[in-house]
C-alpha cells in the first residue's frame, strides 16, 4: 500500500496539481494586493470614496443610530448587511476583470512565442556546407 501511495504521489498529475495550487495561492495574493492597494484607491478618487460596507438594515435588536456594521453586529442585533455584499460583488468584478486582463496578456505572449516557433520551423534552411561544396566541385569539373 505504501508503494502504491509513492507511485500515486510521484505521478506527474499530482505534482502538477500541487504546483498549480501553490502558484495559485501566490497569484491570489498578488491580485488581491493589486486590487486592494492600487485599483480600489484609484476608484475611490473618482467616486469620492464611496464605500457601501456600513450600509445595513436592522432586522431584530437595538442598534444605536449611526453605528457601524461592526458595532451593530457586536450588539448582537440581527442585521441585513447589504452594503458589505455590494462591496464584495464590486471587488469580485474588479478582481475578475484584472484576472481576465492578465490571462489575456499571457495568452498573447504565448501566441507570439508559438508564431515565432512556427516561423522558425517554416523558414527554409539554406543549402548545407556539403551542398555548396558539391556545387563548387561540379562547377570546377565543367
**Rg (CA only):** 31 Å
Q: What share of residues are in beta strands?
A: under 5%
The low-pLDDT segments are none
- The average pLDDT value, as a whole number, equals 82
End-to-end C-alpha gap = 77 Å
- State the helicity in percent bands: over 70%
Structural class: mainly alpha
Tell me the number of structural domains.
2
The biggest beta sheet is recorded as: 2 strands, antiparallel
Number of alpha- plus pi-helical segments: 5
Order of helices and strands: HHEHEHH
Give the strand order, joined by hyphens, for the main sheet: 1-2
The count of β-strands is 2
How is this structure best described in words?
With 142 residues, this protein is mainly α. It has two domains: 1-49; 51-142, no CATH class. The chain is 74% helix and 5% strand. It has five helices and two strands; from the N terminus they run ααβαβαα. The protein has helices spanning 2-10, 12-47, 69-74, 82-122, 129-141, and strands at residues 57-60, 78-80. It has a two-stranded antiparallel ribbon with strand order 1-2. It is elongated, with a radius of gyration of 31 Å. The termini are far apart. The mean pLDDT is 82.
